[in-house]
Structures are given as structure tokens and as C-alpha cells.
Specification:
This protein has 97 residues and is mainly alpha-helical. It has one domain (1-23, 48-97). The chain is 53% helix and 0% strand. The longest helix has 19 residues, at 51-69.
């Protein structure tokens, strides 16, 4: 059961990234992120993009997805919140522990 939950969690994270346009292929020519200029990602204006600058939009989208699942805003997704997410998305949730 735990491996199924971990697999689903991974799928959700990947899915959120893909749906939000955060995969590199979707952004290669400025598509997806709404950033057509390199300078849009170069937050310190040094003419280069670090990995931190490159990953920032993806991390922001993942955090947004996490926050949607964390309905009580305690910084954690508990079993009740996860089960609610699964039910909303059509998964059958076992009531066994």
C-alpha cells in the first residue's frame, strides 16, 4: 500500500510539473513559462542563468501544487488530505490502515 501511495505521489509531482509547463522541452524556445528572454530567468542580472535561477519557476509551481493538497496549511500532507486528493481524481481509497 505504501509503495502505491509513494508511486502516486511521484506521479502527482511529475504531473503537476508537466501540466504547468515546467518540462524543459516545453520551455526550450520560450514556450510554457511565459519567458521568452533569458533575462527573465536571470534574477541577479549577471548575464548567466545558474541552476538555482533555472529551477526557481518549477519549484514555485511544485510548491503551489503542494499547497493545494495541504488543505489545513500545516506544511504537511496527511493521510486524510491525500485520500481526499485521490477521491477527487477518481481513485478508490481503502479505509483499511
Amino acid at each position: 500500500m505504501k509503495s502505491i501511495i509513494v508511486s502516486l505521489a511521484f506521479a502527482v509531482i511529475i504531473g503537476l510539473g508537466m501540466v504547468s509547463g515546467s518540462v524543459a522541452g516545453g520551455n526550450y524556445h520560450g514556450h510554457g513559462m511565459g519567458m521568452s528572454e533569458m533575462s527573465d530567468m536571470d534574477s541577479n542580472d549577471d548575464g548567466a542563468i545558474t541552476f538555482e535561477e533555472f529551477k526557481a519557476p518549477t519549484v514555485e509551481r511544485l510548491k503551489s501544487g503542494f499547497d493545494m493538497l495541504d488543505t489545513d496549511n500545516d506544511g504537511e500532507i496527511d493521510q486524510k488530505e491525500w485520500d481526499t486528493y485521490l477521491r477527487i481524481h477518481g481513485y478508490e481509497v481503502s479505509t483499511e490502515g
